[in-house]
Each structure stands twice: as C-alpha cells, then as structure tokens.
Amino acid sequence: MELNHIVFIVMDSCRYDSFMAAATPNIDRLGEASKRYSYASWTAPSHHTFAMGMLPHTSPKEVFASEVYKDEFAQWKDRTGHTEIAFKEFLPDLSLPKVLRKLGYRTVAKVSMPVLNKNTLISRDFDDYKLMANHNNFKGMIDEMEFPDGEPHYYFLNLGETHYPYMLSGADLPHISGLHGALKGMDAAAVATAGMPAKQSFEPGQMEMLRQQQVKCVEYIDGQIGRLMAMAPSNTHFIVTADHGELFGEDGYFGHGPIMHEKCFEVPFVEGRVG
Fold first, then answer.
1. 237-258 pLDDT, tens digit each
2. What pLDDT sits at residue 188?
3. pLDDT in tens, 150-186
4. With 70 as the cut, is the pLDDT of residue 200 above it?
5. What is the pTM of this model?
6. How confident is the model at residue 228 (pLDDT cuts 50, 70, 90)?
7. Domain with 221 in it: what CATH number?
8. Which residues of 125-146 are buried (b: 16+ CB within 10 A; e: fewer)?
9. For the stretch 34-45, what's the b/e string if a residue is b when 16 or more beta carbons lie within 10 angstroms of its beta carbon?
10. How many structural domains are present in the chain?
11. Contact at 8 Å (CB) between 91 and 74?
12. What is the three-state SS of the chain?
C-alpha cells in the first residue's frame, strides 16, 4: 500500500479574516477554506495539540466531545492513505509523529518560533527537527525538502512570516517578545518591575497597516506553496492552517497569548491534494 506524503503547514498567528482577505490561488487548489478554532491562544500549546494529531476544530452543538475527537482522528486514514491505522497506537504517548513513524514515514519538522526549539518536548518523535535561523524562511524550508520514491515523508512546517512583525524588516516598530524572548531577557531586567508592565499600544493607523501587512504575508506564503506544489508528487496531502489568530486593536487588544477574544481563536483551515 502506497502511503501519501503529508505536508502540514502552520501559518503562525494568521487570523481567519486575514487569510480570507488574501489572494490565495495556490491554496485554493486544495479546496474551500473554512473557519475553525484553535485549542489555544498561543504557539506552544497549539503545536502540542498538533503533535497529538488534533487539528483546529469546528464548534458543533449537542454532541459529546469524544465524538468530535474520534471523527478527527479517523481522518488520518484518508490523509495517510492507510486504511488500517490502529488508533490504540496513539496511546499512551498521544504522538502523531510516533504513529506515522511506525507506519513507515520519515518525520521532519522545520519551525520558525524559538519557543518550539528542538529542546522542547514537541521535537521528541521527529526523525529530523530544525529551528530555522531566519524567522521568515519558508523559502529556505522548501529548498531543503525532498519527496523520495518509496519513502513517505511527513513534513511539519511552522511559518514565521505571518507572525509579528509580519516581514517588516527595518520598520520602526517596537520589539515584542514572545514567551521565549521574555524569559531570555528577564534576568537582565529589573525583577521588581517584572509584574507591572507599562501600558503600551499602537496608533489605530499602525494597527490597520499591520493587519494589511499580515494579508500580504499570506499572499507571499501562497506563492511559495505554489512552488512547493510543483515539487510534490500527486499523492501529497496538504494541510494549511494556523495555530491561533491575532488581534489588531479590537476591544483594546493587540497580538495573542493571554487574551480571551474570538479573533485570537479563529483560524483558517483547508486540506486536500493537488492531484
């Protein structure tokens, strides 16, 4: 039985309506994008759910959560092209890369966010795991990819282009750290003020500029996905989604993380094969 190659693309911080505002002719070849919801509001926990084999969810009413989970895991049969997956193999580790390795996949991850570096637990069951040197290096990831005959590959790609500062190198924008960067700088900072952050924000015009720039970043990614599609065999199953959304001033919020707002959880989702 020939297994499909799988390419799982996560556009970090890409909110649903930014994706829908972008021109994405290559991604559109996979099917119609839908609105789904992230299990978390920031990168690390969302990626841990991906490593478990769980994707952004719909929000069905009057159904037990267990039924939603079962339906989600069952879809890995179609994604892999292997109809005999033993779902007990997910236990007790709850690791999708481990299950895929047992099926015969070479599992490869390329990530952009330092909070996902190879020393974190998420890297454990990958054959090859790399934190890219450049935050915006989807192009470099593609340059390193191959699809050899007789060796199905599972590629997990975390893209930084759609994450702040949205490829705006050299722009006069503040440096905003995520969890990794915040921890890295805390020892050098005044510990007495660590729990009392100064109120900071952007002007409304800057917020709109950043939102529009995220849309442009989606279009850039779509162009690179077109290049990747031209390389990939016809039996390659693509998944394109995001780990969480982003706030651009709605109700006084910016960014993501410790935020409870629908725009922080709404993400695009599309999957399929080019054929």
1. 999 999 999 999 999 999 999 9
2. 60
3. 899 999 999 999 999 999 876 666 656 555 554 456 5
4. no
5. 0.91
6. very high
7. 3.40.720.10
8. bbeebbbbeebbbbeebbeebe
9. eebbbbbbbbbe
10. 1
11. no
12. CCCCEEEEEEECCCCHHHHHHCCCCCHHHHCCCEEEECCCCCHHHHHHHHHCCCCCECCCCCCCHHHHHHHHHHCHHHHHCCCCCCHHHHCCCCCHHHHHHHHCCEEEEEECCHHHCCCCHHHCCCCEEEECCCCCCHHHHHHCCCCCCCCCEEEEEEECCCCCCCCCCCCCCCCCCCHHHHHHHHCCCCHHHCCCCCCCCCCHHHHHHHHHHHHHHHHHHHHHHHHHHHHCCCCEEEEEECCCCCEECHHHCEECCCCCCHHHCEEEEEEEECC
Q: Is the pLDDT of residue 137 over 50?
A: yes
Length of the chain: 275
Tokens of 232: 């990939």
- What residue numbers bound the domain in which 51 lies? 5-273
User: Which residues on neighbouring strands pair with residue 255, listed in sequence order?
Assistant: 247
Mean pLDDT value across the chain = 90
Compute CA distances 104 → 72, 147, 184, 231, 272, whole Å: 21, 14, 38, 21, 21
Give the torsion sign (CA, 230, 122, 241, 13).
negative
Orientation of helix 96-103 relative to helix 43-51, angle to 10°: 30
* Pairing mode, strands 153-159 and 266-273: unpaired
The answer to whether the CB of 103 falls within 8 A of the CB of 84 is no
Of the candidates 54, 85, 46, the residue with the CA atom closest to the CA atom of residue 71:
54
